Amino acid sequence: MSAAILAAHAVTKSFGSTPALRDANLTVTAGEVLAIMGPSGSGKSTLLHCLAGILRPDSGQIVFDGHPLNTMSENNRSLIRRDRFGFVFQFGQLVPELPVLENVMLPLLLRHTSRRVARDAATAVLDRLDLHGLHRRRPGELSGGQAQRVAVARALVNRPTVVFADEPTGSLDSLAGENVMDLLLATAREQNATVVLVTHDARVAACADREVLVRDGEVTDYATVETNKPGDLGTR
Ligand SMILES: Nc1ncnc2c1ncn2[C@@H]1O[C@H](COP(=O)(O)OP(=O)(O)OP(=O)(O)O)[C@@H](O)[C@H]1O
């Protein structure tokens, strides 16, 4: 059995007087593809942002690969985000002025990898995501599905330990969304990456190894909810 790579222990987070997470607990196993489901406003994105070290919880602990993320300095957290994590969001994550190839090279250039090595790695991952021939295009010249595949390529180019994806197919039609998900998951699995995925889409969640449900800021294992409360599954 694989070890835990990421965990939230009794995490709370509020925005002003709005509680977003209340005593949220979650353990993610190395190499696992985990889907986070739940109704709108239930705390899914807040949980993902806390797990990824983007938001600092008010209380509780986030542990990544043995490191307590929430008590770490901002500088060390940003190094972990840069070197160990990849991110795919719903919209607007590519730099519009840069061609596709340069967008995908960026995470490696930020780590001071040489341009030649970064170009070779970006070319390989773009090929894997069926994007050969589009290297010189700007993001504005891509379809929505192509742009999301470029975003996936950029998230995976530095072979992250964990890929965080927040509604990665939310802006796409079902065919394009399926294509992006298939390529994201196949490539992440080839790289032995762990994937933490927020989605509203039950078909997307069905591609995961495990689903959890966030409701009112608390996390429940989907299997437990399914057994105990049939027909009471928020947006499912
Ligand atoms: N930056 C913020 N400022 C104020 N309130 C926020 C902020 N971010 C989230 N919230 C509030 O925290 C709660 C949880 O929001 P969150 O975005 O985590 O939910 P979600 O489950 O991801 O929702 P959705 O599915 O609609 O994206 C909501 O009540 C939301 O209004």
Characteristics:
four-stranded antiparallel beta sheet; binds adenosine-5'-triphosphate; 8 helices; alpha/beta; single chain
Bound molecules: adenosine-5'-triphosphate
Task: Identify the overall geometry.
Answer: globular
Count of the separate structural domains? 1
Q: Class by helix and strand content?
A: alpha/beta
Radius of gyration from CA coordinates: 18 Å
The CATH homologous superfamily corresponds to: P-loop containing nucleotide triphosphate hydrolases
How many helices does DSSP assign? 8
Based on the coordinates given, report the CATH architecture.
3-Layer(aba) Sandwich
Order of helices and strands: EEEHEEHEHHHEHEHEEH
N- and C-termini, Cα separation: 30 Å
Keywords: ATP-binding, Nucleotide-binding, Transport
GO molecular function: ATP binding; ATP hydrolysis activity; transmembrane transporter activity
InterPro entries: AAA+_ATPase, ABC_transporter-like_ATP-bd, ABC_transporter-like_CS, ABC_transpr_LolD-like, MacB-like_ATP-bd, P-loop_NTPase
Organism: Asanoa ferruginea
